[in-house]
Amino acid sequence: MLSILYQPVEWPPPPPAGALPVFANQECRLVGRRAMKLGPEHCREGHRPWRAQRCPPTTHHAGFFPGQHLSDAFAQVNPLKKVPALKDGDFTLTESVAILLYLTRKYKVPDYWYPQDLQARARVDEYLAWQHTTLRRSCLRALWHKVMFPVFLGEPVSPQTLAATLAELDVNLQLLEDKFLQNKAFLTGPHISLADLVAITELMHPVGAGCQVFESRPKLATWRQRVEAAVGEDLFREAHEVILKAKDFPPADPTIKQKLMPWVLAMIRFSLLLVMYAVPKEKQHCQGHSLACAELHMKLETRDWGKMER
Amino acid sequence: MNSGNVTTGGPSSHLPPHRELLSPAPISKPPRKRSGSLAWATGQRDGILGKIQLECRTQPWTSTVPHAPAMGLELYLNLLSQPSRAVYIFAKKNGIPFELRTVDIIKGQHRSKEFFQINSLQKVPVLKDGDFILTESSAILIYLSCKYQTADHWYPSDLQARARVHEYLGWHADCIRGTFGVPMWVQVLGPLIGVQVPEEKVERNRTAIDQALQWLENKFLGDRLFLAGQQVTLADLMALEELMQPVAVGYELFKGRPRLAAWRERVEAFLGAELCQEAHSLILSILEQAAKKTLPTPPPEVYPTMLLRIARIP
């Protein structure tokens, strides 16, 4: 996952004795140590229940340059070169949901985060599984297409691509409301859970990019307020301090840009084709969902995406 | 695609080839009448949704069986779907009794108003346990393993061992899911609606598959017997069923990957040849069905979602 830029630090930093290192970007901050700030949403998730409950772990680490997760040094921690990554003695763990669940069980946080009740827990599992390939993806794309491409990478995004991405985000926000939140206080029931934590941190991406996520959705807006209140408004603000200033990121270093481009190009290809299917009919250029439309889109694929219109 | 038989044995009973599953078979128990339930057989009793399959546990019901469930577990599946197969295999392997509700996704039955009441996301698999409805295969697998207290190795209670399963499932969602299903769309499902996916996309997908297999073999399998440890877990089941999808359309995923091939053999040996045949027979005959033009024709209302799925191929 993308790191957010800040001052350079020595990598890898030596862990304090007794600490449980959570390698995240420099934006991760944990109670008692004040050493990390949370950047990517996973890192923010990885600490909030414990900060809110004022209990261990109190570990922290690492600052990241953007793209520093692509370095060989970090590959020793996580060969997949992604954040977040957790190191507990000899045990290294990646994947944000896995880390969250590990910390939940190890430090015996209050039951509501990940209930013991079979069906209540299944609801959390269901949301965590669903969001991975849906809301998470569209939130990330919204951030990239609205801000990170033009500001960070200096690569303007066509209006059609942005429209498609925002349309897809809209679809997933509707599913979040209709399928998961419905008329409940929180996503999986009357109490906050890991599902709400994961969801709110994802949604901060498009919010940070300037998207109107909550303004036209009063139900989601009041849910957000409840989540913020449950987590603690200070902690919430602190955790999202950086992402909410995404528009102010300075441009990327050229070598970092080169490393990131293959991944971001794949994202552009996907989104541009979505314009024909995800954008409402009245905004589409083609006549609707037809085979002729599909043929046109297949022809579009033969264009040289390296020469996208600016 | 329809399982019309009622099996009274377990996974060890003789299994007919999938074509014979489509024809009516003698049943040893009458199907339970459920008043007020959804009218699944909407005038097509001989078709896909008219039959109910009752699965009996291999062990007799005794007081020592913990959490003995009421006979009400329903699984809405389609054996063309990778996550559906994982759920199906898990339930059968562990002798979990369930009623199989086959949802014909090519004919678009997952898009029907009736199925919308079951799952508003219009996808399979879906679990229905009394009034409790659950979607997402990993959530269903975890629910079943906990409720029916399956052997610990599937979803270990050990903190770090369980974390490994979740670590795999997280990576699986990003790098396996969505990628390994593409060859089926390219070779079978796209052509079914007259869409040909450009070669450029096919090549990119091959590269993505190769890269994912490399990570699968090196990071997750490594020197271990299975993906998340030394015993079979839910991770192996999810992975195997995704890998079967391109295998079914001729991709030689295991060629030149002896460790991965050995892993596959271990998993299939653990599940048992008959269960694997039962679960895989439909998907492994898909090319033959496509060639003989015996696949159902998707109705026009399904085209938009199929086109959208094809458009998502990077």
UniProtKB/TrEMBL annotation, chain A:
It is found in: Cytoplasm. It holds the Pfam family GST_N. Gene3D superfamilies: 1.20.1050.10, Glutaredoxin. Its EC number is 2.5.1.18. Residues 1-111 form the GST N-terminal domain. One of its GO terms (biological process) is glutathione metabolic process. GO terms for cellular component: cytoplasm. One of its GO terms (molecular function) is glutathione transferase activity. It is an enzyme of class 2 (transferase). Residues 117-249 form the GST C-terminal domain. It catalyses: RX + glutathione = an S-substituted glutathione + a halide anion + H(+). PANTHER family: GLUTATHIONE S-TRANSFERASE THETA-1, PTHR43917. Homodimer. Belongs to the GST superfamily. Theta family. This is glutathione transferase. It comes from Macaca fascicularis (Crab-eating macaque). The lineage of its organism: Eukaryota, Metazoa, Chordata, Craniata, Vertebrata.
TrEMBL record, chain B:
Its EC number is 2.5.1.18. Residues 1-39 are annotated as: Disordered. Residues 71-152 form the GST N-terminal domain. It is an enzyme of class 2 (transferase). Residues 1-11 have a biased composition (Polar residues). Its main location: cytoplasm. Conjugation of reduced glutathione to a wide number of exogenous and endogenous hydrophobic electrophiles. Has a sulfatase activity. Residues 158-294 form the GST C-terminal domain. Belongs to the GST superfamily. Theta family. One of its GO terms (molecular function) is glutathione transferase activity. GO terms for cellular component: cytosol. Pfam families: GST_C, GST_N. This is glutathione transferase. Keywords: Cytoplasm, Transferase. InterPro entries: Glutathione-S-Trfase_C-like, Glutathione-S-Trfase_C_sf, Glutathione_S-Trfase, Glutathione_S-Trfase_N, GST_C, GST_C_Theta, GST_N_Theta, GST_Theta. It catalyses: RX + glutathione = an S-substituted glutathione + a halide anion + H(+). PANTHER family: GLUTATHIONE S-TRANSFERASE THETA-2-RELATED, PTHR43917. One of its GO terms (biological process) is glutathione metabolic process. Homodimer. It is found in: Cytoplasm, Cytosol.
